[in-house]
Amino acid sequence: MVRVLIAEDMHMLRKALVALLEFEPDIEVVAEFSSGADILPQARQLRPDVAILDIDLPGVDGLTAAAELHTAVPECRTMMLTSLGRPGNLRRALAAHVAGFLLKDSSPATLCDAIRAVARGERVIDPQLALAALDDGPQPLTPRELEVLRMASEGEEAARIAARLFLSVGTVRNYLTSAVTKLNARNRVDAIRIAREAGWL
């Protein structure tokens, strides 16, 4: 029996997933919830075989939770079920030791087969997304440029970013300008949009 934990903030979709999996004789849903903050404590207590996580969860996002699970509950393998089919998200998921990455419009049979494969220790990735990731160019920003852009995306002003990173305001502005240039963006807001759509933020 494959014991599954589901974290999905869309109530209707989560309930549909639970109902779908209950029809499978060899899959048991042991927990389902809407907040990313519940994932780690519940997984520690219940020790599921597979955690099916949405990327954009409130509290703790799915990728952060996947990385935490890999460290704290290593026998629980994670699978991302997402509508965000971006190559950058796939790369971030693989870096977080995610074993499965499927789009939400996958067929029920594909999902159930993927759960079983992930539980067996295999890796399952949506083939179209895998091809897109291979075709997609590398992420052009340096770690510092990405960090500054991420903080800007959270509404932080240059002076505040400088204080948090122990940099001068001028250096922070230079990083932001460099990010805008590398992404061929019109301005900082456009650079944030491009980076988000690529899955880098």
UniProtKB/TrEMBL annotation:
Gene Ontology BP annotations: phosphorelay signal transduction system; regulation of DNA-templated transcription
InterPro entries on file: CheY-like_superfamily, Sig_transdc_resp-reg_C-effctor, Sig_transdc_resp-reg_receiver, Tscrpt_reg_LuxR_C, WalR-like
Keyword Protein biosynthesis: no
Response regulatory domain: residues covered: 3-119
Assigned keywords, A-Z: DNA-binding, Phosphoprotein
A Pfam family per the record: Response_reg
Species whose genome carries this gene: Streptomyces botrytidirepellens
GO molecular function, one term: DNA binding
Residue list for modification 4-aspartylphosphate: 54
Listed PANTHER family: TRANSCRIPTIONAL REGULATORY PROTEIN DESR, TWO-COMPONENT RESPONSE REGULATOR
Protein name (database record): DNA-binding response regulator
SMART domains linked: HTH_LUXR (SM00421), REC (SM00448)
Domain HTH luxR-type: 134-199
